Amino acid sequence: MFPRRNNSVGACRPSKSRRAFLADHGLGFTGLVLGSMLSTERSVLANAAFDASRAAVAKSVIWIFLSGGYSHLETFDPKPALNRYAGLTFDKTPFENPVNSPLHRKRFRSVPAEEINVRDVYPTIYPMQIGFRKHGESGIEITDWWPNLSKCVDDLCFVRNMWTTDNDHAAENQIHTGRHRLDETQPSIGSWATYGLGSFNDNLPKYVVLGGPTHSNTRQSIDSYYLGPQHSGVPIALDPKNPLPFGQRFGEQSAIEQAQEFELIHRLNGLTALEYPEDAELSARIRAYELAYRMQSAVPSAVNVNNETEATRRLYGLDNESTKIAGERLLVARRLIEEGVRFVQVFPSAYGTWDSHQKLKENHSRLCQSVDLPTAGLLLDLKQRGLMDDTLVVFCTEFGRTPGLERRGGGIDGRDHHPNGFTIWLAGAGVKKGFVHGETDELGYHALGSGHYVTDLHATVLHLMGINSRLLEVPGRRRLDIDHGNVMTECLT
């Protein structure tokens, strides 16, 4: 539809009035689709970052994030000692008091002053709120709130020694960017994963977000910052009639009229590109408008699950209100990677949903049910379609929850935020099956040994995609060593 663009466009800024016109004219696609870039060629930086020692095994990533902080103790890292010593304080058990451990101060970074911050030090042990059993040939223990996922444990790789530093919900950004909220913001893992990687489908973005960002404060979790807006995540709704915010033509506007409108915008952009050939932002804008136009037909088709079989719909729990939301998002994630999307970031539940300061048993039993069947359905579906060999699935949250009973506000049945140790799991391309890596102490307080800071997960994902994070440097934006993380080699096949 558009004439071939001048590929030499690229960095001075035109006047504000012209820029405003180019940004705001038409259907407002720019704000939406600057999160995706049409390029099918890898950048020079990305080429340099490919790890010659290991070919890419993961073509696509489905990153599942549960907002609010699920309890590792009631999900994937059961601790019977909590039941044995329930009601006692940490110093009354035969174990070292975890609050006195040097790991507590080393890994704990509070925004309030330490003397007024009582979080993460509740000393009275709160028992587990659910039973647990061994499952599969691997005999991995998980709790009884996962009846469907438990059948898949022999395909999962659990990492039980994750840790982070932010004990507030800014940790949702931290697990995606690697930075504490007091530090300089960094691009999200989805942006790094797709930075420089070509697209498999010129009609879809290479980084799609389903169900997020979860809150106005968590935009960082899908943003690209200095990598450029073309590498940000593109939020897509599941309504096939309107999957793109501002992405439909006006009701009285014909397809021909819209095409003419985009043609005019493209020509005006082209004229400006001749005047400012080094304007990289304008170059990204031109590509964004082109992609936006093609996305109008490709995206509705990708998110339309009505043509799936009834068996597939049941597999994901679309026939049950309690599992429908998570099921639809995970089913669409599978459809998107089939269509060539590189990175799909899925938020099955709303912001802070898993944040069980009170009524943990009631909340977690309901929430686990809402994602258990859909997540197991995704894994089974990927396997039966032959997609597990080149798709990496990541299942994570921002932190765990305290072994101690939260007392604030007269609490009697909940756990507070816990950054010192928690569990995530991986499945699919390049990772071990039926495997548990790392551990927390007997009370589930500290990730033992060096543990894995959240950017170790980033490094592992990028490595499986064939990228060496330490070679992904942007001029003028040198990152800290911790930003790169270390590949969790013990988890790889």
Describe this structure in words.
- The protein is an alpha/beta fold and 493 residues long.
- The protein has two domains: 13-40 and 254-303, no CATH class; 43-240 and 310-491, Alkaline Phosphatase, subunit A, CATH 3.40.720.
- The protein is built from 14 helices and 13 strands.
- The strands form three sheets. Strands 1, 4, 5, 6, 7, 8, 11, 12 and 13 form a nine-stranded mixed sheet that branches.
- Helix 8 runs antiparallel to helix 9 (280-303) and helix 11 packs parallel to helix 12.
- The model is unreliable at 1-44 (pLDDT under 50).
What's this entry about, in short?
This protein is α/β, with parallel strands linked by helices and 493 residues long. The protein has 2 domains: 13-40 and 254-303, no CATH class; 43-240 and 310-491, Alkaline Phosphatase, subunit A (3-Layer(aba) Sandwich). It has helices spanning 16-24, 29-33, 44-49, 81-84, 102-107, 171-177, 189-194, 255-275, 280-303, 310-315, 321-338, 360-384, 454-464, 481-484, and strands at 60-66, 132-135, 140-143, 156-163, 207-210, 234-235, 343-346, 391-397, 400-401, 417-418, 422-428, 435-437, 452-453.
